[in-house]
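REQUEST ID: PR-0412
SUBMITTED BY: lab tech R.K.
PRIORITY: routine
TASK: structure prediction, single protein chain
INPUT:
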Amino acid sequence: MKEKYTILEIPKDERPREKLLKYGSKSLTNSELIGILLRVGSQKDTAITLGQKILKENEKGLLNLVDATPESLNKFHGVSNAKAATLLAAVELGKRISTTKASETFKITSPQDVSALVMEDMRYYKKEYFRIILLDTKNKVIDINTISIGSLNSSIVHPREVFLEAVKKSSASMILIHNHPSGEVQPSREDINITQRLIKAGEIMGIKVLDHIIIGDGSYLSFKEENII
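STATUS: complete
OUTPUT:
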């Protein structure tokens, strides 16, 4: 019996593009969404089964796309440079969309709000990023700034660099954020020391440090909630 090599050989109502248009994107599986981006498969696979193979690699699922490079995608038979570029562009758009809430209309009322704002971006970083969320008097986000990249220590996270951005943008308060590439959220002694140092600097500057959030792989820790500060 002949194998199905193309999406066109799938019954029309079951084709990913038609399903999306009729029922919405949420009705599609991850492999079907990838299939739409790939458009066509190879002599051996439909675009959908090719998507399944990408997801099944090392049992990592969608993380295979988050961590993907053109080279890692090219090893799948049927994924050309053009298709790899399409997949990588879609992933990057998803990351950027996840951070578009960082605007003046987004109000921070809890650590959960901070997590919703930065989790899908910062949880996948391979290095530690130290960022600050700058807030106005009503706790609305003014901006998010990256202060340093690399393991946290007092030499690269200096109060001068942190509060320079806050003063420039007339921030009333700020929230500190950094990620742990390990995925764990337990703070180190250095994390705590830096936080205390910045809180004291904020008291002098008149810009309050409200919290420090550590971002892990799908989880977070709030210094405020844990009574660390």
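NOTES: The chain has a mean pLDDT of 85.
REVIEWED BY: pending
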